[in-house]
């Protein structure tokens, strides 16, 4: 029996040693993996590098950028552009019946903006004018910066139909009391509402706000990606990771990452 007990002890010690070596190797392995081989877990690393949307056959009758004419006092720097935050094709998808629309506003003295939404038959489905608040020096509050308007569910506006193309136009009135509209600046983009599949909808519902940005982006929902990331940036203005993600989002559609002012809250 003595030889049996010695053999059993040897087997047990060997097993313990093997387990310890295996656990130690596994613990050290992740520490030794080069950084370039590790998965990119930052938010910007989860965003697509390009957004590709096919515009409607008839096209979108509005540009995503518009500038002031020479001598127009509406924009402080004539080379600055009012820019709709949409892809280069100007068409983008939304999961929402009432999406939020974003644009970059240069330093401006405009008095109001008019938002117009039309269907592919050129029928107006929504039109509203918004007076712009001014600072004591006469410039629009929040300019230069990213501004937004949400389509209101309470203004007798029917929800956007799934699969239906729309386009929106933002008209910057310069000045409001002038009957001459030649100084007005008009920008905009296209919208198509797409219903998320049930699995994605459930994942979005269960996700953290930061995870939600990546889910929307990789599913191709541009308007929700911009809106959810803009909200995060407002809540965490000093977060460098969010700033990098915002810059990548703009660059992915060919927009200048100098639009780095914090987005204002939607109206």
Automatic annotation (TrEMBL):
Organism expressing this protein natively: Allocoleopsis franciscana PCC 7113
Sequence segments annotated as region (Disordered): 40-74
Protein name, per record: DUF928 domain-containing protein
Biased composition (Polar residues): 40-53
InterPro entries according to UniProt: DUF928 (IPR010328)
